[in-house]
């Protein structure tokens, strides 16, 4: 049953995240595509927006696809964790946790599922198992450190343009 439950989690979470990334990258499933996503990233203070749109879309699409397939574990779950961590500290910053309030409830849930899959492994019904692949165990902790540093450096310190404009306006009034 454990392998079957891993398969279910991988397929559902991975497919949904891959679809979400496809919305960003290709405009599929009614998504904004690179142009719309680039503007959104800029509005979050992530510049250049096109670069961050590509990174976010690739993390979701690639991480979701690898996770769904159970291929090259832990790279897929790490991609999901990276994208959802950045979303939590930028798009959902300063809001109550609940999705109904615009909060990070869904990204946090996706990170928890990805972390569980990363720790548990992809299970028997995966490409890794079928191909006899196993990446080094040290890869996950190292990648998590890189993700944490990146989220701190670029996500936690990103300032949306509206905030910068209001600061400039305040500075002008003080003079």
Automatic annotation (TrEMBL):
Enumerate the transmembrane spans.
none
Localization, UniProt: Cell membrane
Q: What is this protein called?
A: DoxX
Q: Which InterPro entries match?
A: DoxX, DoxX-like_oxidoreductase
Taking the first listed entry, what is the main subcellular location of this protein, grouped into a coarse class? membrane
Return the GO cellular component terms, semicolon-separated. Answer: plasma membrane
Enumerate the Pfam families for this protein: DoxX
Does this UniProt record's set of keywords contain Cell membrane? yes
Give a yes or no for keyword Transmembrane helix in this entry: yes
Give the top-rank taxon of the lineage listed in the UniProt record for this protein: Bacteria
**Naturally occurring in which organism (per UniProt):** Rubrobacter xylanophilus
Q: Into which family does the record put it?
A: Belongs to the DoxX family.
Record keywords, A-Z: Cell membrane, Membrane, Transmembrane, Transmembrane helix
UniProt membrane topology term: Multi-pass membrane protein
